[in-house]
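Model it.
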Amino acid sequence: MNNDRINYINTGLIVLSCIVAFFIPFELFLFSYGVLGPLHYLTEIGWLHKKNYYTKGKYDFLFLVVLCAILFYISFIKPTRDATLVPDLMLFGFLISLIFVFVKDWLYRGVLALLTIVVIGFLNNSNSYFMWIGVFLPTIIHVFIFTWLFMLYGVLKEKSKSGFISVIVLIVCAISFFVIQPNSLNYTVNAYIQGSYRMFDLLNFYLINFLHLDQLQDVSEIFKTNAGFVVMRFIAFSYTYHYLNWFSKTSVIKWHQVPKKNLIFTLTVWLISVGLYIYDYNVGMHALFFLSFLHVFLEFPLNFVSFTGIGKEVSLMLNQRKN
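Modeled.
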């Protein structure tokens, strides 16, 4: 399958995700997160492992695994009362990944790691620190902004017009949720969906208030207000396409080219995961929490590779124009 065809398929998937998200955003999110999500985590982690997680050291990924394990422990095993500890771990994992990607010498790594801790100590006093790092970074920034940047990097690298169309369509569809707000598309969110979505309700609450769509006083209002539906459409669209983008590029990324036993293991764990979500969505959420956040942590180095790749491609294009 050539790249143009893949890009056109991607554009179609973006539009399809957008249309479905307009009508049934909560249902779409729960389906995508519970069915597509676990398969994405498993296959991406396997693919990243083959790429050595894009870091300089062979075992750098273990540090990120430990950070994620600590995050899981303080979130579910022994919940912490320190509101900044979770975002501190997230930001430390993010910044330490930058070091892992570009620095190999352990002395420099140690010095930079200490500097990172100092920086976090200053940042976590900010009023919006928890919102940006604890809520937005592992969710909407990860699934929408980083996905868009990853796509942009590929477009710049391949000089692809069809890929550029996908990048533009993704932005247009995202904006459409905030421009087109038909009240006729409001619908009743039943108790099951509200209960299944409760681990994500803070994301909606913070997004609504941050974008000044409304001034909600209670988290439950995300299921009843027009602003709640607007934001949910955007979230459902972002998550759904994040997963579909990964699977649509199988022939390019080649994440499926693994030993047969690995593939069987992946499919088995995936089926068990889906079964847990069907049995009780919140049980599935708790059981898959570690795997979900692990794929976020392990993808951090790749995010920095994409950032620098975009910078290099833009710089190259500017130099070519000058010449």
